[in-house]
Amino acid sequence: MQRIPTSPPYIAPITDGLSRPLWSVMIPAYNCSDYLAETIESVLQQDMGEDLMQIEVVDDCSTDANVEELVRVCGKGRVSYYKQHVNVGSLRNFETCINRSRGKYIHLLHGDDRVKLGYYASLNKLFDKFPEAGAAFCAWEHIDSEGNFSHQSRTEAKEPCVLRNWLHKLAEFPRLQYVAITVKREVYEKLGSFYLVHYGEDWEMWARIAKNYQTAYTPEFLAEYREHKNSITWRSYQSGQNIKDIAKVTAAIISYLPKKDQKKMLKTAKRNYVYWILNETFSAWFISKNKKVAYNQIKTVLGIYRDNYVLSRISLLLLYIWTDPYRIYFKRRTI
């Protein structure tokens, strides 16, 4: 079995006729035991009971701790545990999560993220208010490895709504995190699971959903996305694989748009993503001072898109790397 599927994996409908909960909170986990207890607790504090909420950790053969014991203790008998027979990789683990889910709504909550009190109640209201929506999400906050607040996501609207022109907006640049979004199981059954790449696979999925369904949104900050050096995102940054993967994702998403919009949007998407990744590379340099990461990002960026702004930012970053970074002032540019 391929670790990175080349087409969307099939999600089987539930046909056993047994009663089903409203929610499935599926927690994919791999070597995130330092954070998993916080993740579980953030769900348990708003537990709706077994009849309404399935909660399960799906462990991809973690090696950093006895995850089964951790779940038993932290879950207090309320959280079920499933372990892969072998390490299958993140995409196949997500696929397993979805196939093992029984709820109408599926929340893939990574084992290093957290939800804030009110997440499930608020998204329930969103789905009730906008029943045609295939997915719903909220605004979120970024936290660091210690759980401290870093910054907030952008807001997409001022009040709960169905987002207009959402596919076109998604095509411009990534605008979502797993922790913030819940998807109806029937949507995965129709469209399949995650595929194509190891980094950015979620961006493609949210766009695939937007092509076929409405997406509901609330501007409440009800989720917390954790940034740390052991995350999939950070590991992909070290090799530059993140930008190679995003090139594939961008091409896929652009293909979902009307033909008349594709050429212009492709250029816009490449530019926006490269601008964003350069800002992230600046931040990563000041945090880690890791030249390998910075050089890999620069090299790969130049193969995707370049203009005067990109070249000037790269020149400034190289100056930071080669000289005393505290003597130079720079102003971050946002998209």
Low-confidence parts lasting 5 or more residues at pLDDT below 50? 326-335
The CATH C-level name of the largest domain is: Alpha Beta
The helix count comes to 12
**CATH homologous superfamily name of the largest domain?**
Spore Coat Polysaccharide Biosynthesis Protein SpsA, Chain A
- The secondary-structure element order is EHEHEHEEHEEEHEHHEHHHHH
Helix-residue proportion: 40-55%
User: Got a strand count?
Assistant: 10
What radius of gyration results from the CA coordinates?
Answer: 20 Å
Mean pLDDT: 91
* Principal-axis shape: globular
CATH architecture of the largest domain: Alpha-Beta Complex
Q: How far apart lie the N and C ends?
A: 39 Å
CATH-derived topology of the largest domain: Spore Coat Polysaccharide Biosynthesis Protein SpsA, Chain A
- Look at the helices and sheets and give the structural class: alpha/beta
* Largest β-sheet summary: 10 strands, mixed
GO molecular function, one term: glycosyltransferase activity
Keywords: Glycosyltransferase, Transferase
InterPro entries: Glyco_trans_2-like (IPR001173), Nucleotide-diphossugar_trans (IPR029044)
Protein name: Glycosyltransferase
